[in-house]
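Can't attach files on this board, so I'm pasting raw text. These are the components:
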Amino acid sequence: MDVRELAADYAALVAAGKMDEAADKHWAEDVVTVEAMPGEMSRTAGKAEAQAKAQWWYDNHEIHAFRSEGPFVNGDSFLIVMDIDVTPKGGERMQMREVVGYRVADGKVVEERYYY
Amino acid sequence: MDVRELAADYAALVAAGKMDEAADKHWAEDVVTVEAMPGEMSRTAGKAEAQAKAQWWYDNHEIHAFRSEGPFVNGDSFLIVMDIDVTPKGGERMQMREVVGYRVADGKVVEERYYY
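---
Top answer:
Structure tokens for the assembled complex are below.
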């Protein structure tokens, strides 16, 4: 599976709301995730830590609607634009719009990077 | 000027159609540009070569409308989403939607990368 094929499959799973399946299927064991902002979980290393961060996020946010667009591909990297209508636990409902970048090596996603 | 300030200024110039001014003001002398597709100008090195490529593009495309969104920032990088309603010389009018990534070092844009 080349980068453009992987990107298309990944983006289709995300568009269908199957983020977990996309991660299970395509993340490398040593995947790194990088948030735009500093903080406790601004950087994770390894699939288990990345999945724990994702689970924390799901446990602490109520998602009302989700839409994604992409992939946009260049070389070993691709981008997905995401719109999330969300209420953080104890917070105000908000419309998040962000771009998530993925870098591929040896047929697996080795880096996830949030831009906003 | 930190990355988020530079990104905001760059994106504002692009949104105003002032791509040349954004490049003049913010590109490093050794800026590298990387297209998504292979080809003669898939990679340029240096500001003069990058500006020559841009000039070639303007000379060979008629732009009917342009819209941009962003910046989306992470660390030393930022993204701008671009919509271009364009007719290539001798070709069919088309709607291009792409994301352009910029990497900053020492307060200057050192890399421009097209995703589509």
